[in-house]
Amino acid sequence: MALNILRRMRATHTDTTGPAGIGGLPRAADGEVLLAADGLTKSYAGADGELPVLAGIDLDIRAGEIVALLGKSGSGKSTLLRCLAGLIPASSGAVTYRGKRLTGANPGTAMVFQTFALLPWLTVQQNVELGLEARGVAPAARAEAAVQAIDLIGLDGFESAYPKELSGGMRQRVGFARALVVEPDVLMMDEPFSALDVLTAENLRGELMELWESGQFPTRAVVLVTHNIEEAVLMADRIVVLGSRPGTIRETFEVGLDRPRDRQSAAFEDLIDRVYRTMTGRAKESRIPGRTEAVETEKRTAANTPLPTASVDGLSGLAELVAHRGGRFDLPDLADDLGLEIDDVLPLVDALELLGLATVSEDDLLLTERGTTFAGADVQQSKKIFAEAAQDVPLVRLITTSLRQNPEGSLRAGFFRDLLAHHYTSEQVAQQLETATDWGRYAELYSFDADPQEYRLDESAEQPGA
């Protein structure tokens, strides 16, 4: 089918131990270390010095394997991927490709992005040819190689179409073809399926795995960034779970399951459970029964207790669902019933825990007495319960207390952004304030005016101890 044009070019200029070609040559030297991070750290400049994102990452990427980088938002997954690709420099430590330290973009990698990143004024074929054009490949040769990649990824017939004419799934196929046509040693994928609907993502994921298993995939290794536990277990040979703030490797799992993988098998479900417990920090042996909420609350600050991305409607709906099941629900079963992945439910679970409306015991979500009352209350009563709970949440408490201490009962959002900037990136600051605004408005603790970017104390808000 394929002519393997780039391989012939490489044979003229470089060694012949490169990746499998588009024509389906076997991946050579499985187990060879292609890419490595040694003591990798990455920090960004913040308002109060450096903000650490990654700390002491040691990781090898070997030929013949798919490695999934898994973690919650803020764990540094995408930052690590970009460091490995040489798109951003490490603050300390080293990234090496085939034993040579990177000082710029990694010549042996290609990237597939979440947002497709296509040039809208170029056709499918022209978009696929971009990487080859940048490498100085002659027009006729790059056109021939692009057509092969387009055919491989199931886009034949769309060569002259523009991105606006394509569905999301087809646009992402263009992204894959553009990356694969340069035959990288390591394909980097940054949540490539998260912008697609469930069925499209499932179909594309399955087709890519079939290509990988068939030997037609023109790359020797894959690094996949994902927050989706089931996706990681479905695709990866090795799962690297990152902890947050700063990102460190919490645990590595060798998957060891035959492909195609049976989602209903006990081994598959057991691995999901083990990864879930590691990812959430809720391992059975680390739970402390009977811990008192007062001690936990005293230790919380806006710096060490980030708000999960969870709307009031979402966490209220989850509380009601659990209440209808008798106040206790197995989390994997809950996710299945909702048609979601476990990790999609985690922010809501974290929010209920933070508010003291629920606790997690092993893999079960249990409503507290306050949570049970909240789930069954009418709108006005639920607002009152939520307001009491929210005032124990550090960032909500910080905003409320600051407004009460200001004679005018108002403060600009920039004041809180500056405070949070000492501990969070700009994107995280925006997310923290968005959630705090939602919670505070619902609790009627304060209002927010978007035009002047100003918070104002709600005059009906009760004072502490009132």
Structural topology:
Blueprint: H1 5-13, E1 33-46, E2 49-62, E3 66-70, H2 77-84, E4 92-97, E5 100-101, E6 109-112, H3 124-134, H4 139-152, H5 168-180, E7 186-190, H6 198-214, E8 221-226, H7 229-235, E9 238-243, E10 248-254, H8 266-280, H9 293-299, H10 312-324, E11 328-330, H11 331-338, H12 342-354, E12 358-361, E13 364-367, H13 369-376, H14 379-390, H15 394-405, E14 410-412, H16 413-420, H17 426-442, E15 446-449, E16 454-457
Parallel strand pairs: 3-8, 3-9, 6-7, 7-8
Antiparallel strand pairs: 1-2, 1-4, 4-5, 9-10, 11-13, 12-13, 14-16, 15-16
> Looking across the biggest beta sheet, what order are the strands in?
6-7-8-3-9-10
Number of strands: 16
| CATH fold type of the largest domain | Rossmann fold
Distance between the termini: 77 Å
Return the domain count.
3
Q: What gross morphology would you assign?
A: globular
What is the count of DSSP helices, taking H or I runs of 4+ residues? 17
- What is the radius of gyration computed over CA atoms, rounded to a whole number of angstroms? 25 Å
- Point out poorly predicted stretches: 1-26, 283-296
CATH class of the largest domain: Alpha Beta
Q: Structural class from helices and strands?
A: alpha/beta
Q: How would you sum up the major sheet?
A: 6 strands, mixed
